[in-house]
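Quick one, tokens below:
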């Protein structure tokens, strides 16, 4: 069976923890989109890890980890991540890299930086990992696919062609040093040596696995609201963050995705620019940021402080719908135990009218939150394993949100560890 684990919001919902937990019963975990621009934080018996490119199944000896064709593959980052695990006694994971994945080049990262510099104050809040230039090149058909590394004649020709285009921009738009074809070719050859042992036709591998009844997890990065089509365009990422894209980014039939587990955090956080209706500021935000996640809400890749807000029912209902949610995993609920009262955003006021439908960006930017205040439970709920044992106000909070978003919350996460989970 194929299941997807995806985010309902702006990312950082705790997908890594849920995937790591579900991976116990998975044969294969696949990353199907995104790159090393975001991270999953995982806490398990080996310690605390931030993964950026590796699927969250790498800690189990029995799982195969696949970097799907939809991923922006940064090869040096992937290898330093693998080293980061093996250096800390995690056994070398079994990794397969799609021969159709494309490669993040060093110049993609430079272009990201140059563009942010050029835009100055008007930047999109990029993590400068080269993701936007990478996907732009993929769709402009000037990207390098892993398979192309193994055909030197074509590679030489393509490097020339790519450098010609890039150098016009570098010289005239950014006024920066131009690319030297020989250096780009050398970079690609280095990458070839590194990835060669791991490369295969992963869609064929997955097809066989599906026929054999294996358990497969598709792991998404970021969340619905960062999807280029359905998110808060243009403050979005450059690859689809939706479960549906799992079929494409992994190369499997869409009808094989039987379960879509959408991860929703019990409050909101976001990184980068863009409308964030239920955002809070000042001491209130600092307190939640400090207590949030596991050791505070700071970017797993960048260390940037995350923007904080109350739970947003409008955004989450939309985020769950667009994912095609079958199950909601409601995470980081334990963190809210310090609050006397917990505001929840139940509607948006736009030009004097209240709506519960998530609007397109221009309208979203005008939206003001309509808040409903729920009573807090003022206790530490970590360690609780049975739903009935949660404080009444805590259950009321969960049930109120479930009714607002309209999708079943089947898992409640009350701590960062694998065992901190309550099934309903
Ligand atoms: P992801 O990108 O969606 O995987 O999310 P992140 O890894 O950026 O953020 C989730 C953070 O919350 C990590 O530090 C996790 O260890 C932590 N976390 C996940 N679930 C829970 C939970 O239920 N309670 C607490 N306190 N922390 C959690």
């Amino acid at each position: 069976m194929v299941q997807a684990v995806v985010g309902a919001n702006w990312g950082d919902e705790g997908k890594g923890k849920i995937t790591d937990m579900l991976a116990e019963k998975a044969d294969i975990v696949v990353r199907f989109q995104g790159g090393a621009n975001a991270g999953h934080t995982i806490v398990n018996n080996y310690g605390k890890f931030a993964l950026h490119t590796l699927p969250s199944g790498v800690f189990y000896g029995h799982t195969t980890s696949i970097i799907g064709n939809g991923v922006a593959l940064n090869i040096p980052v992937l290898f330093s991540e693998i080293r980061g695990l093996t250096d800390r006694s995690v056994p070398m994971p079994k990794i397969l890299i799609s021969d159709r994945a494309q490669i993040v080049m060093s110049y993609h990262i430079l272009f990201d930086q140059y563009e942010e510099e050029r835009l100055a104050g008007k930047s999109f809040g990029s993590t400068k990992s080269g993701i936007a230039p990478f996907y732009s090149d993929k769709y402009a058909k000037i990207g390098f696919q892993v398979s192309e590394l193994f055909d030197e004649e074509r590679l030489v020709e393509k490097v020339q062609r790519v450098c010609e285009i890039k150098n016009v921009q570098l010289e005239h738009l950014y006024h920066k040093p131009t690319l030297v074809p020989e250096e780009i070719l050398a970079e690609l050859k280095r990458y070839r040596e590194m990835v060669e042992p791991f490369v295969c036709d992963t869609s064929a591998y997955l097809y066989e696995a599906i026929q054999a009844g294996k358990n497969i997890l598709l792991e998404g990065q970021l969340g619905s609201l960062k999807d280029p089509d359905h998110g808060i365009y243009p403050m979005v990422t450059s690859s689809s963050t939706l479960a549906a894209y799992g079929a494409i980014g992994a190369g499997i039939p869409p009808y094989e995705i039987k379960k879509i587990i959408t991860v929703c955090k019990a409050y909101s956080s976001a990184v980068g620019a863009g409308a964030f209706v239920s955002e809070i500021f000042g001491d209130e935000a600092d307190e939640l940021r400090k207590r949030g996640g596991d050791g505070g809400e700071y970017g797993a890749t960048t260390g940037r402080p995350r923007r904080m807000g109350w739970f947003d029912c409008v955004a989450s209902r939309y985020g769950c719908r667009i994912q095609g949610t079958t199950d909601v995993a409601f995470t980081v609920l334990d963190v809210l135990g310090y609050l006397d009262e917990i505001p929840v955003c139940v509607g948006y006021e736009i030009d004097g009218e209240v709506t519960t439908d998530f609007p397109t960006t221009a309208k979203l930017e005008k939206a003001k939150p309509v808040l409903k205040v729920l009573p807090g439970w003022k206790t530490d709920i970590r360690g609780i394993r049975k739903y009935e044992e949660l404080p009444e106000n805590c259950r009321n909070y969960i049930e109120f949100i479930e009714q607002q978003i309209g999708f079943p919350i089947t898992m409640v996460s009350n701590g960062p560890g694998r065992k901190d989970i309550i099934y309903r």
